[in-house]
Amino acid sequence: MNAYEQFLSIRDRLEMNGASEDSIDLIDKYIDRAESERDSNTSITTAMVLKHLLRQREVLGNDAVYNDLQELMGEDPRPRNDDAAPYAYEEEHKPRPHAYYKQLKKEKEKERK
User: What's the longest Cα–Cα distance across the chain?
Assistant: First the structure.
């Protein structure tokens, strides 16, 4: 989705969450700014747009808007699949003992002779 579509999506999500009027007005302002990107093929993620918004002066100066956008950052739009393969960092590392490598070395030496 391009920037314009992302802002529309964010606006819809803010309305569904019951966000403050200041948040909706701010997003409307950004929708107007992104109007020129309406037909753009450039793809931007929602997380990138939200991070950009969270750094803006208007957001940092208004706690209600900041909290509304932070709430969207915490949402994961993709459903979780608990049956999926575990991540690499979740697997336990089990190093082999020194004796294993000694045994390998002995076996290789026997094969050479």
Answer: 83
51, part of any domain: yes
Q: Tell the residue number behind the tokens 């336990």, with chain if given.
A: 92
- Token pair 């929602």 in the structure block, residue: 46
Residue corresponding to tokens 């950052």: 73
Q: How far is CA 13 from CA 2, 23, 86, in A?
A: 17, 11, 30
Find tokens 């803010």 and name the residue.
14
pLDDT tens by residue, 52-80: 899 999 989 989 999 999 998 877 555 55
**Residue numbers of the domain that contains 66:** 3-74
CA distance 36 to 20: 26
